[in-house]
Amino acid sequence: MKKEIEKDFGRVLLPLITVFQKDLSVDYELTRKAARFVVENGLCDAIIVSGTTGEFYTLGLDERRRLFEKIKEELDDEVPLIAGTGAIFTKDAVKLTKTAERLGFNAVMVVTPYYCRPEQEGLYTHFKTIAENTTLPVMIYNIPLFSGVNLLPETLASLAKIENIVAIKDEAGLNPLQTTAYIKAAEGKIAVYSGDDNMVLQVLAQGGIGVVSGGAHVVGDLIKFMINQFIEGNIMSATEIYHSLMDLYIAFHGNGTRVNPTPLVKAAFEMVSGIPCSLPRPPLTSASDEERSRLRRVLKTLGKL
Predict the structure, then answer these.
(1) Phi, psi (degrees; rounded to nearest 5) at 211
(2) Is 130 exposed, middle or buried (0-12, 13-18, 19+ CB in 10 A)?
(3) CATH pick for 2-222 out of 3.30.70.1560, 3.40.50.2000, 3.20.20.70, 3.30.70.260
(4) Is pLDDT of 3 > 70?
(5) What positions carry a catalytic annotation?
(6) Are 52 and 16 in contact (CB under 8 A)?
(7) Are 105 and 82 spatial neighbours (Cβ–Cβ below 8 Å)?
């Protein structure tokens, strides 16, 4: 199972946005339409439902289950589907994981428990319990910027001994050399994906295999080409593409004023796709006119508008 990750899921995994109506209820039909758009336009190799870019932290368990159902109905087996089943309570994460398996998802992605800041032993037990309650491949999602806790390489080494724990998405910008530490500690048994759009090449250079990219909603084709250029040894070409994308990644963060880029990713996707999807759930705020103007300029430069 562990040796097939790149073959099974690819190099560009897209954490699908969740579309909300004006009353802030989930618009399942437009979310399905968003999923259809990214697949038909070749913007990803696999889709993650209910990830950070999907604002899972604002969704109830029933809303997340229904999202799983709707996206599975829409895409079936067209692309690999990964369910974001992370939760602050281990029991809830197990329940969501079992739902994903019942629906026929290909894998689950499980974020480190947030806010409670567990010890490493607690993290190990959390992921071990989830893995033992499913036959699906499990991807760990390490994002200390939001969760407040970092999964240490030695803890990952212990988790790598569990057969169906196969990959980790790491917030590489916060710990830029942790990819190397993870690969060495786990003796190459865990595939590493960058959790930061702007760290893809750095993670690949250390032995990672790809990226979980919110930005793929609008530039997934360019990201895939950049990664392929790097893998094929065309380093300068890959670097040029990387440089061209940096203005967009900076714009996603409001030129440094936002930590969470989701509202601006949604605004950019709305511009490119024509799907009215830019409304986030509070306390996140929608893109300002100035932020939209900056996004529009960058997207035009990239040939997306």
Answers:
(1) -145, 145
(2) buried
(3) 3.20.20.70
(4) no
(5) 141, 169
(6) no
(7) yes
